[in-house]
Amino acid sequence: MTSKKGKILIVDDNAGIRQALKILLPMHFSEVETLPSPVTLVSTLERFRPDVVLLDMNFNTSINTGNEGLYWAGEIKKMFPEVEVVLFTAYADIALAVEGMKRGAFDFIVKPWDNDKLVATLTAARDKARKAMKRDAQSEQAMTADSPMFWGTSRPMAAIRKTLDKIAPTDATVLITGENGTGKDVLAREIHAHSLRSEKPMVAVDAGAITETLFESELFGHVKGAFTDAHTDHVGKFEQADGGTLFLDEIGNIPLHLQAKLLRVIQNRSVVRVGGSKAIPVDIRLICATNMDLEQLVREGRFREDLYYRINTVHIHLPALRERKEDIVPLSQRFLEGFAEKYHRPLTGLDDSAKAVLEGSHWSGNIRELQNVIEKAVILSEGNVLTSKDLDARSESGMTGGVIPGLTGNLLHNAQEEERLVRDAMERSNGNISVAAKMLGISRPTMYAKLKKYGL
């Protein structure tokens, strides 16, 4: 007899489903509550404090244009991270449920459900929630952005590693180039981690996502009263990185007239906050990254030559994944192990058919695309090893999170073409900004900036 422990909240607009679960689940949970809609969800969570929420994906409301489950799953995990969310979905919405798991949901159950599988999933979610209360929740994150660099065995990566060993202990300014998804930000963190500044902060800035009006304030800071909303002094990114490393990603996207201001600060190693007059010295190690050809931009007069040489003391170019094919399978195995732990799947490896598919793919989205594909395959897998069928399921299931062929890494300098690509990604993702950003191989903040730029 299964011991009755833990609390569960069921949120579903179908009265028959609520009634059926109200009969079934008290045999496995000490307390069961139901809601017909998410209208009072937050207040109920605050009062009831469940271990698990079984959340329907769609309700008879207009919240979030039909993606209510995704929205509320995100809100629950944001406000109550200790609560595990299990999504309740129709077969047609499996793609949304998978996206929900990527946003933090524990698992999903497809209607009509099997009682044994439903109970097993919900009790597993309950056990995880209760164990998490006794330990540091950070131990769950097997695949974080801070994962160490995967060097592999390819010649290009071996050469980069030798370069890193030489330059990391110095304060040399580094320019990292490469297509989107090759791991430029991970390499920047690796350089910082092996530097003499590793005990100090590394501050990362997505330069392409900062609006022109906020550029100086974000990077250099401002004083109280400098502009209408400047109610207090603000410390900019340069000051925040004092003693450590400043990483300027997508530096090729900085407008020409702002490049001069950036150059001045880099040269002087001091900032003057917006609205202030005092020069504040900053001690930083600068690392920049871009997927653009800066030399070509210099020739076109779109990037300052003096700034280019200032940031290009050491240049490291990360190869595309297709240029290091011997690393694809080991890297896939690494991702598989991490996601198998994260999504509690009993996977141990890849069969020969899966390896052949992975090695034969072009990977226009590079490591980021490979990671995305393995994550989805792990979520949808049913066996102990990933097969080519599991990899194919990512397209057959109708998911929109994959990279659009030919788009990733190719946001063009031509504004008209770039706008077309951004519009196409938003259409293909049904307006989901996170998914569209992944398709284009750019960060979510950069995607917001592109949408604003083109009035989308």
Characterization of the model:
There is one protein chain. The protein is α/β, with parallel strands linked by helices and 456 residues long. It is built from 19 helices and 14 strands. The strands form 4 sheets. It has a 5-stranded parallel β-sheet, with helices on both faces. Strand 9 and strand 10 form a beta hairpin. The radius of gyration is 24 Å and the shape is globular.
What key phrases describe this protein's structure?
single chain, 456 residues, alpha/beta, five-stranded parallel sheet, 19 helices, 14 strands
Q: What gyration radius follows from the Cα positions, in whole Å?
A: 24 Å
List segments where confidence is low: pLDDT < 50 over at least 5 consecutive residues: 62-66, 135-147, 393-413
Please work out how many helical segments DSSP would assign.
19
Oligomer kind: single chain
Largest beta sheet: strand ordering? 2-1-3-4-5
The overall pLDDT, averaged over residues, is 83
Structural class: alpha/beta
Report helical residue fraction.
40-55%
Number of strands: 14
Shape: globular
Largest sheet at a glance? 5 strands, parallel
| Euclidean distance between termini CA atoms | 56 Å
In short:
With 456 residues, the protein is an alpha/beta fold. The protein has 19 helices and 14 strands.
What is the fold's blueprint, element by element?
Blueprint: E1 7-11, H1 15-24, E2 31-35, H2 41-48, E3 52-56, H3 68-79, E4 84-90, H4 94-102, E5 107-111, H5 115-132, H6 155-167, E6 174-177, H7 184-193, E7 202-206, H8 215-220, H9 237-240, E8 245-249, H10 256-268, E9 270-272, E10 279-281, E11 285-290, H11 294-299, H12 305-311, E12 314-317, H13 328-342, E13 349-350, H14 352-360, H15 366-380, E14 385-386, H16 388-396, H17 415-428, H18 433-440, H19 444-453
Parallel strand pairs: 1-2, 1-3, 3-4, 4-5, 6-11, 6-12, 7-8, 8-11, 13-14
Antiparallel strand pairs: 9-10
Helix pairs in contact: 3-4, 13-15, 14-16, 15-16, 17-18, 18-19
